[in-house]
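Re: beginner question about structure tokens

> Can someone show what the tokenized structure looks like for a real chain? I only ever see the sequence side.

Sure, here's an example I had lying around. Input first:
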Amino acid sequence: MKNLVAALFRLENIDTIEHLAQVIGTLVKWLEKPEQSSLRQAFVAWLKQGPLQQLSHESEPKVEALQDLHEVQQMLSKRVGQWVEQWKSEGEKTGIDKGIEIGEKKGIDKGRVEGQVNSIRFILQHRFGPLPTWVDEKLLQADSATLNRWLLNAYQVEQLENLFK
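And the corresponding structure tokens:
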């Protein structure tokens, strides 16, 4: 008899769908005798509660209908490639969606900063006339919190230089 306990441990620590298919293929070979049908069924029952439960998908045949390791092996051989492609596609979509979300947030943040810079520039030009180039340099290098502080103080400072101290 082959080492079924080792196979069970391998199944418990499965890391890929392909690895699962390999271990089940090995079990099918090891448990091919008719008198081992109860053992095959026991493995299927265990698989239904673990790895196969995680693979279950509404569009797939119900895992509960599987009765024998041969059926599990056949199902996996037909579905592994499809599942991998489906998971890749879902992962890519999730990645794209997350990238769009991050990009939108960065765009909003950048627009907010540009609005703060323009507001400060407008107030300062109104109060002090044409601005020296160093003011734009300061404004463009500042973070949002600093710009907020400068925006609040832009009406109160007596001299342009005092705003940036």
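Each token stands for a local structural state, so reading them left to right follows the chain. The helical segments are 4-12, 17-30, 37-49, 51-55, 69-128, 133-141, 144-153, 160-163.
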